[in-house]
Amino acid sequence: MLRLPQFGVALPANVDAVVALLRDNPGARIVAGGTDILPNLKHRLDEPGMLISLAQVAELRSIAKVEHDGQAWVEIGAGNTLTQVSEDPQVRALFPSLATAAGLVASPLIRNMGTLGGNVNLDTRCRYVNQTKFWRQALGGGCLKSEGKVCWVVPTGRNCVAAMSSDCVPVLISLDAQIVLAGPQGQRVVPAASYFKADGLRHTVREDAELTTSLRVPVPTTPTRSAYAKWTVRKSIDFPLVSVALRFDLEADSVDAPVTKLVVVAGVLGAKPRIVSKLDDAIGKPLSDPALSRIVCAAVAKQCKPLENVPYEAPYRRRMFEVFTRRAIAELVAAG
Known about the structure:
The protein is an alpha+beta fold.
């Protein structure tokens, strides 16, 4: 049986109190649902002196549409559970890919506990570090992310390439979402596309004393089709081994209308998602045009190069990126 290390627990009642505790207790960690951090603590991947629970911070659990200066967005509190996000009528109607992603995380029990903010700030994972401390020591002293000094995925590399395995993050990037942070200097808003860094040891720009309070997702101003697809060995519980989020803006509300903008974001490659580029040839083609699917799938296959940082062979996972992208587009077309 794996035991938790000893730590203190704080139960603040509001965001300001959380920020004050983070500021005054360097090394303290935030816990909401605890579905990721607690297993990691059992594996001794961290041993904080204090956990700051968000259980009593009710202001983090709202979902509301906001209109300001001619712009509209849905503000989703970071404390909402993944189940609440996946079942919310506004989210399902305006952002079906986000509802899908939240509804595919792990299992019902975990979705009932885990929060959107926790999924956004999910720690990076690697087959060589997310093991027991005894296993890591047997490996030869751990790796860059634990007790060692070498990356077992890229032994000649100097950076940690542990993978960001969040389901919701690729979708939020594809939807041009923004991440709202509260800290000692006040509030700041960071585009989701700029929030992540290619560093498995510290893969977000969030400062130590900052708290993710909400996600702002812009309401589409044109007809849009969006999708999220993931591949895992099992149908539940597992983290994704391949994930891809797609968004197509259309001239009219029909899959036969020309595409005016498209965004494709791939996850589970490295510490940050990859925004697939060089898709200009697809602009102007109808979503239902098989040529569009071929262009997008070819770009995904060329640019998404998995590493051996999560289970399953990297060449097979690369092939699955193309397969699941094609399937996701086909399902959008079939849905009309």
